[in-house]
Design goal:
Elements (H helix, E strand, L loop, with lengths): L2 E6 L3 E2 L8 E13 L1 E12 L27 E7 L10 E4 L6 E7 L7 E13 L11 E11 L4 E8 L10 E5 L3 E5 L10 E7 L14 E5 L4 E10 L1 E8 L10 E5 L4 E5 L10 E7 L14 E5 L4 E10 L13 H6 L6 E4 L6 E6 L5 E3 L9 E4 L8 E4 L17 E4 L2 E4 L1 H4 L23 E2 L3 H11 L5 H7 L11 E3 L4 E3 L4 E8 L4 E8 L2 E10 L9 E2 L1
Parallel strand pairs: 10-15, 16-21
Antiparallel strand pairs: 1-3, 2-3, 3-8, 4-7, 4-9, 5-6, 5-8, 10-11, 12-14, 13-15, 16-17, 18-20, 19-21, 22-23, 23-24, 25-26, 27-28, 29-35, 30-31, 32-33, 33-34
Length: 544
């Protein structure tokens, strides 16, 4: 707020003087200005009742070095300056030369960086009369006026945004204004922070609720022209419920949801039921090893913010030996319950072929008949011993066979299936070319596999089947029932070598050959150098 002050001390009169002398009236004048841009001290005077005559300005009025004794006779004059004595050199102006007009005797501006100024100077009036002046009083009125222009104050208003551990805060908003207040519209830009929702802005970094929203109006006062706003964040918990088939098949997408801190989220468990041949689905558990279900399809499960993710595992109960009816239902539990060397007939769900199976001397469950999967076939991991999908086509006749190991060939002939090793291993033959490497897949039913040479050797040893004529007779008798299955050769002659039998194993001998179970007139055993991979040979499966 601008202000100005003017003080005129009591006048000091020089005393009585003789005609022709100069009398002085001295006034100490103090003026001040606060928060102003400029000021002007003006002297306004007027004649009294009796006009002064002969008054002319002092020659050189307005210049320094003029003293009151140089006034013309019978005139008044005034001086303004910094002298300490009334009659020292000052600039005098005669009266009434500037009759009734305001004359600035002091002007100025406050120095840069200052808010106030105070100055004291002398205002001296002089009068000079000769002996011819008429007797009486001569008067004039003088008015000192201090005029101050208020300083125009500019306030620097500003709003600063702090992302408060986030990123992308708006830039500073600022403006200079002479108004006592200014209203900002808050920026529409919103900062971001991973895992959090932006709630708005507050004047405190530790606030949990927002005071202002983007686009809101905020008015600042000149008494507090600057404001810092802090982003207020709310933690977001990403809840997810995943499903693990735990050996079964089926696809259930992970369920996800977002929720705020201090809360929980309730999921509805999927109604999709996974499948697993040879097992009954009991429900869902908390671990892969669970044997009882904690949750059921379409039930509810609540996750807390302290543990927002969870995986449910399918819980399975293996079918018993008495319960299984298909090849695909075979499982370790059922096999362990099977009575030794007691045949059971199971159906292959892929083509409805039936096979007799039995627990043999090695404690494993074996097919006691040769595989005879027929027709052009597309198989997959749900019903077959494969990890993906596999398709093969059976030729129309044996004559169509050729001796190219890369060809995927199979034929149903004389009540028995004959397959190249690549078909028998479901096309994974290229994955087992090194010595003693085993193909990872086969066209056996789900839960079964093509036996390795080691598994065949173990069976023969457990059954006491020696590599001699007695052993050959035993393996060709019940309950094993192997026979002279012969082989298909690609010369158009069909079956050849009718007086022997060869059965595929999954174990490769090298890139071109594989180990086979051989049934010869003189004996039986697992042999190498007897199975060219392009041969058409039968095979059997053993339960996993």
């Amino acid at each position: 707020t601008a202000s100005a002050g003017l003080t005129i001390e009591k006048s000091s009169l020089s005393g009585e003087v003789a005609p022709g002398g100069t009398a002085y009236l001295t006034n100490n004048v103090t003026y001040s200005a606060v928060d102003t841009t400029s000021y002007s001290l003006q002297l306004t005077y007027a004649n009294g009742n009796t006009a002064l005559s002969g008054g002319t300005p002092i020659s050189g009025a307005g210049t320094t070095g003029v003293v009151g004794s140089n006034l013309p006779d019978n005139t008044w004059g005034f001086a303004w300056g910094d002298t300490t004595a009334a009659n020292e050199s000052m600039t005098y102006y005669t009266l009434p030369a500037y009759n009734t007009k305001g004359t600035s005797v002091a002007t100025g501006r406050l120095a840069s960086g200052t808010t106030s100024a105070t100055t004291t100077k002398k205002l001296v009036f002089a009068a000079k009369f000769n002996g011819e002046a008429a007797a009486g009083h001569y008067k004039t009125n003088a008015l000192l006026t201090l005029i101050a222009t208020p300083k125009l104050v500019t306030y620097n208003y500003s709003i600063t945004y702090n992302a408060n551990n986030g990123t992308g805060a708006p830039g500073v908003q600022s403006i200079g204004s002479t108004s006592e207040s200014y209203t900002f519209t808050l920026s529409s830009t919103k900062p971001t922070r991973s895992g959090y929702n932006f709630l708005g802005w507050s004047t405190s970094a530790s606030a949990t609720t927002a005071t202002y929203q983007p686009g809101a109006k905020v008015t600042l006062k000149s008494s507090a022209p600057a404001l810092t706003l802090y982003a207020i964040w709310q933690r977001v918990y990403n809840y997810s419920l995943a499903y693990n088939m735990n050996g079964g098949t089926g696809t259930i997408a992970t369920q996800t949801a977002n929720s705020q801190p201090g809360t929980s989220y309730q999921f509805t468990i999927s109604g999709t039921t996974p499948t697993r041949p040879g097992y009954t689905f009991l429900g869902w558990g908390n671990a892969a090893s669970d044997t009882t279900a904690s949750y059921q399809a379409n039930g509810k499960i609540t996750l807390q913010s302290s543990a927002p993710t969870k995986t449910l595992y399918a819980v399975w109960k293996a079918l018993s030996w008495s319960e299984i009816t298909t090849m695909q239902q075979m499982n370790p539990t059922a096999c362990s319950q099977a009575p030794s060397k007691t045949a059971k007939t199971l159906t292959d769900s892929r083509d409805n072929n039936s096979y007799t199976v039995m627990k043999l001397d090695d404690g494993r469950c074996w097919m006691t008949q040769d595989m005879r999967l027929t027709g052009s076939r597309a198989i997959n991991s749900a019903d077959s011993d494969v990890s993906g999908n596999y398709t093969y086509t059976i030729p129309a006749s044996v004559a169509a066979w050729n001796n190219t190991s890369a060809n995927l060939q199979a034929v149903y002939y004389s009540g028995r299936g004959y397959y190249t090793w690549c078909v028998a291993t479901a096309g994974t033959c290229s994955m087992a070319t090194a010595a003693n490497s085993a193909a990872p897949s086969s066209i056996c039913p789900k839960g079964w596999k093509m036996p390795t040479k080691t598994e065949y050797t173990t069976l023969l040893n457990a059954a006491g089947i020696a590599d001699n004529a007695t052993g050959r007779s035993k393996i060709m008798s019940s309950p094993y029932n192997y026979s002279y299955a012969s082989l298909i050769w690609g010369d158009g002659s069909g079956l050849t070598n009718m007086n022997l039998g060869r059965y595929w194993t999954s174990t490769s001998e090298d890139a071109a050959r594989t180990f086979v179970l051989g049934v010869w007139p003189s004996g039986t055993g697992v042999y190498g150098d007897a199975g060219q991979k392009f041969y058409g040979l039968p095979f059997r499966c053993v339960a996993r």
